[in-house]
From TrEMBL:
Record protein name field: dTDP-4-amino-4,6-dideoxygalactose transaminase
Modified residues (N6-(pyridoxal phosphate)lysine): 181
Species this chain originates from: Branchiibius hedensis
GO biological process, one term: polysaccharide biosynthetic process
Gene3D superfamilies per UniProt: Aspartate Aminotransferase, domain 1, Type I PLP-dependent aspartate aminotransferase-like (Major domain)
Amino acid sequence: MLPYGRQSIDENDIAAVAEVLRGNWLTTGPAVAQFEKDVAAVAGVPGPAVAVTSGTAALHTAYAASGVGPGDEVITTPLTFFATATTAMWQGARVVFADVSEDTGNLDPDAAAAAVTDRTKVIAGVDYGGHPIDAPALAKVAHDAGAVLLEDAAHSVGGSLDGVPVGALADLTTFSFFPTKNLTTAEGGAVVSPSDELLAAARNFKGIGYTRDEAKLRVTDEGPWYYEVHSLGLNYRLPDVLAALGSSQLGRLAQFKARRQEITDRYNAALADIDVLRTPAHRAGAEPVWHLYPLRILDGRRRELFEHLHADGIGVQVNYIPVHTQPIFADLGWRKGQFPIAEAYSAQEISLPMFPDLTDADVDRVIDSVRTFVGA
């Protein structure tokens, strides 16, 4: 079975991990510090990133850093992995969904603006498939409301919009380093921000909420072992052994990006002329890193195409089931039919295989199977 996504590990990655295993640090140490600097450099922000244990942990940490709490509202897209929404709920927020743009599947700025209330604390856009959100428009909506713009960039580390790297476009940006993502630490994530204040809050939260910073201590006559807990936090610390893998992978990010674009171009060239298919949109000024190849089939036969490809030994996926239709949100009153663009996109979408180690022959095999199904 040809998988729809998988990691790309080489001997340099293995050597980087082995070096840590032979050293004195396994948990947070010098490899994490280096990885945080490396991620910040790619993201185009000055301060080191805040490395965490997963993309979900990164989202939770970002919401906590932005001060989200009970009574606050977080506006986000229903076309995403559900953690974009549920991690805000862990902070006590009410999640408010808004529809997406028909072409990219990203949060629509006009829909987000219509959902703003005096309780809006964060607007969270998602770089669906690797295509950056319309950050300038969403930032204006957020900042006009006194809110924070959070970019869930789980799909798009290494991308940019109008020459600005993903990571420097929003007030807070979160990354995921799951094996199928653009680079991997096995499990892991990171938070970046241009704001020192938001970064400090994120670092405190992921470090269990305690401090040894003498400027913050209420008791100052204890010994060097002394620490204080001023706020709630969680242990989301990434270990050195995983951070070393991440830094090694970052060395190949440009290569990964280029190959993902080549695969996208090959799919597009072979499928764009078929009336019942819709290839991914690519807006001017956006430089995506294609985490997914989200093909849409417009004639209502998505399930049949899914089953046809599986029968041909080709792994595919659906990204995503609209979050507002999940029972946890249906129980809060959200209903199918409220976000027709996101729901239509989801009903049509099928993610074809996309990872850097796909060969041209693999891609052509997928193309041939799709074209056979649609009779092209």
